[in-house]
Amino acid sequence: MAAGSKDGGVRTVCSYCGVGCGIVLDVVRDPADGRRRAVRATGDRAHPANAGRLCTKGATSADMMAAPGRLATALVRAGRGAEPSERDVDAAVTEVAGRLRAILDAHGPDALSFYVSGQMSLEAQYLANKLAKGFVRTNGIESNSRLCMASAGSGYKLSLGADGPPGSYEDLDRADVFLVIGSNMADCHPVLFLRMMDRVKAGAKLIVVDPRRTATADKADLFLQIRPGTDLALLNGLLHLLVAGGHTDEEFIAEFTEGWAELPAFLAQYPPERVAGLTGLPESGIRQAARWIGEAGEWTSCWTMGLNQSTHGTWNTNALVNLHLATGALCRPGSGPLSLTGQPNAMGGREMGYLGPGLPGQRSVLVDAERAYVERLWGIPEGSLRTEVGRGTVDMFERMAAGEIKACWIICTNPVASVANRRTVIAGLEAAELVVTQDVFARTETNAYADVVLPATLWAEADGVMVNSERDLTLVQGVVDPPGQALPDWRLIARVACEMGFAEAFTYTSAEEVFDELKQAWNPATGWDLRGVDYGRLRDRPVQWPAPTADGPDRNPVRYLNDGVSQTLLERPDGSRPRLVFPTPSGRARFFARPHLPPAELPDDDYPFVLNTGRLPHQWHTMTKTGKVAKLNRLDPGPFVEVHPEDATALGVGEGDHLEVASRRGRAVLPARVTDRVLPGTCFAPFHWNDLFGEYLGVNAVTNDAVDPVSFQPEFKVCAVTLTRTAAP
Ligand code: SF4
User: Fold this and answer.
1) CA nearest neighbour of 597 among 399, 310, 256, 360
2) How far apart are CA 276 and CA 259, in angstroms?
3) Is beta strand 9-13 parallel, antiparallel or unpaired with respect to 5-6?
4) Mean pLDDT, to the nearest integer, of 136-148?
5) What is the pLDDT, as a whole number, of residue 314?
6) Where is the 4Fe-4S Mo/W bis-MGD-type domain (predicted)?
7) DSSP secondary structure string, 126-143?
């Protein structure tokens, strides 16, 4: 019934996690009011990411879209503490633009900040970055990807020269061994996990490393229940054993890498006995993992927050990539380090450069030629882009709390609930002169602090492109009518920019026009750009970049093949190894010696337990969307804190009793779940439930906002807490 309609529905992509499953959305026109509504979501059998599979979240997408509570107008508050009142969206846009302009003129560019999201379309991410860096001239733009994938991004850049996975999901179909470390794929990326399990059932080995015995660990051939925060010791220990076992690929190391010379002496510090002591793992398990990896024809690693949300998250990625470089297990079918993204377009946001010094096309304000290129693309004077860069999300809200930042525009995300040690965010928003939020549902923890809430469209109500974890671009088509005056994120950004005085650069008639501009940001000389993609091609099917030409293949599963050979021709008829050129200064991938470091906060007499946080299978993020779906709420109905039976006995708590979980920063009160899935001395709580569901449920009042010095990603995964039996809140 709409452009792109196939098999009775409209092809689109799931709006939740970064697997990026294809969805066929059934849309009907309501005879009562003539509006188009989504009635059913089913898996798209033709989509390369999922081949028809969906998890519970994707399958209930239509229910989520029909949920009550949508914003149909803007909301404006007369003053802090006042009840918000409805406002015409045109008037609200004018008010936002006027107040931002006034703060910009009075206090300069660094008084404005933007906090955006991996759930926005590529077009909206591009325009937000263009407005912030190019026209407001502040690098004070942050994204919730800082909480999620920043360490993988900075680690990839250091090791391989560019962000993003070098391989693709197809590697899961061909690997002989999987190393899943710091990732509960079974719950967080379920469809991809099922694909991995297809291969495991066919004989591949699954190694899972996690401090908690997760649903993923339940399926492992080898589960290594590691002491929290000791991944670097394990990764170095595995490389030690690979070298000792003669499993390194000397030809690959010599031809395509640099930095290997210093590794043997460094690795001598990580014999299995010492690694076992640091990690709490049995030596036999460490040796078994190294043997399977070393003897594998092909092996793939997958990781997410367990490695990323660490004060040495960047190093974790470097140490993991070291294993691939040493074994030559990279850029060939079945092998590679495949970091998984948590949001539907977090990968796209990284392409758009919305973190730190980033510019679209994976360029940087810190590189003269790249800065100059983007200045020309945006039609701004040479030297306009500034080279001072921020220090991450936590720093941004701290500077807001200190009065340096006067205004914050938050788009499509909920930082009051999601940022570690969230009281910093609350202090920042309370201190700011102007807080603007842009969202789809009226009630979120962050909207409660907004002076103006702009009504945005939901997924499938507007056109836009999403990029999944394997670099697949899928077009989300606007096939459902949004409520009232809700507008696409990209259009709200463009309209505010125009009214701020930047109309020459922000007058667009469609998302497609924005896309055609943003794809010019890539450097064609790299050979891994996406200039060959346009809406016409995407209306028909997803395209995986690199896609430099319109007539090239749609599937391009491996990057860094820069010798003119098709991305799909990895297996040369003559058996020769494809030539790899990494986008580093030397063209070689880099080894790094990354020593084991402890987490920022360790348990002590005052705070004797380690808290770990994470996700559940049927809820997502801070539940602004999944919390509206009755089926999902029945499956994952409420929060809890897992404690080991030994600790429960010592604490005098039983199943369902309430525990206060308190750190040096704050407290949460949660019902206990007594289970040996966690190690003694540790506990685990999901982070989904927050203020809208009850007082003291938000575990990010407790978590630690110490950050990785390279990626600025907070260490959500390890903090020291007390556990005390208490009454229900
Ligand atoms: Fe959506 Fe992720 Fe579930 Fe796929 S696995 S249906 S992308 S939430």
Assistant:
1) 310
2) 26
3) antiparallel
4) 94
5) 98
6) 7-69
7) HHHHIIIIIII----EEE
588 within some domain: no
Q: Inform me whether the pLDDT recorded for 569 exceeds 60.
A: no
669-690 b/e (C-beta count within 10 Å ≥ 16 → b) = bbebbbbebbbeebbbbbbbbb
Q: Report the distance separating Cα 650 and Cα 348, nearest Å.
A: 48
The residues pairing with 157 across neighbouring beta strands, listed in sequence order, are none
CA of 345 to the centre of ligand 1 (A): 12
pLDDT band at 3 (very low <50, low <70, confident <90, very high): very low
CA of 297 to the centre of ligand 1 (A): 30
718, pLDDT greater than 70: yes
Domain check: are 388 and 305 in the same one?
Answer: no
Same domain, 328 and 180: yes
β-bridge pairing 589-590 and 658-662: unpaired
Residue closest via CA to ligand 1's atom 1 equals 58
Tell me, what's the pLDDT at 575?
Answer: 58
Q: Is residue 569 part of a domain?
A: no
Domain match, 58 and 96 both: no
Whichever domain contains 125, its CATH number is 3.40.50.740
pLDDT in tens, 374-399: 999 999 999 999 999 889 999 999 99
Ligand 1 atom showing the smallest separation from residue 49 Cα: 4
Query: Is residue 2 over pLDDT 60?
Result: no
Residue 54 Cα to ligand 1 midpoint, Å, equals 6
Is the same domain home to 328 and 239?
yes
Which of 480, 508, 536 is the last residue before a domain boundary? 508
**Residue 215 shares a structural domain with residue 279:** yes
Whether the per-residue pLDDT at 603 is higher than 70: the answer is: yes
Question: What is the residue with the minimal CA distance to atom 2 of ligand 1?
Answer: 17
Domain that holds residue 141: 74-148+345-508
Q: Is residue 546 part of a domain?
A: no
How far, in Å, is the centroid of ligand 1 from the Cα of 20? 6
Distance CA 452, CA 433 (A): 12
pLDDT for position 587:
86
Tell me, yes or no, whether 707 and 645 share the same domain: yes
From 576, 566, 686, select the one nearest 626 (Cα to Cα).
Answer: 686
Helices (H) and strands (E) in the chain, counts: 26, 29
Q: Work out how many domains the chain is built from and give that number.
A: 4
- Residue 541 resides in a domain: no
Q: How far is the CA of 466 from the centre of ligand 1 (A)?
A: 13
Atom of ligand 1 nearest to the CA of 58: 6
Specify whether 359 is located in the same domain as 501: yes
CATH for 709: 2.40.40.20
Whole-Å CA distances, 20 to 84, 191, 464, 516, 612:
36, 10, 14, 22, 26
Same domain, 167 and 232: yes
Instruction: Give the mean model confidence (pLDDT) for residues 456-468.
Output: 95
- Residue 16 CA: nearest ligand 1 atom is 8
Give me the CATH number covering residue 60: 2.20.25.90
**Complex-level ipTM:** 1.00
Domain closes at, from 297, 322, 339: 339
The per-residue pLDDT of the chain, averaged, comes to 94
23 Cα nearest atom in ligand 1: 6
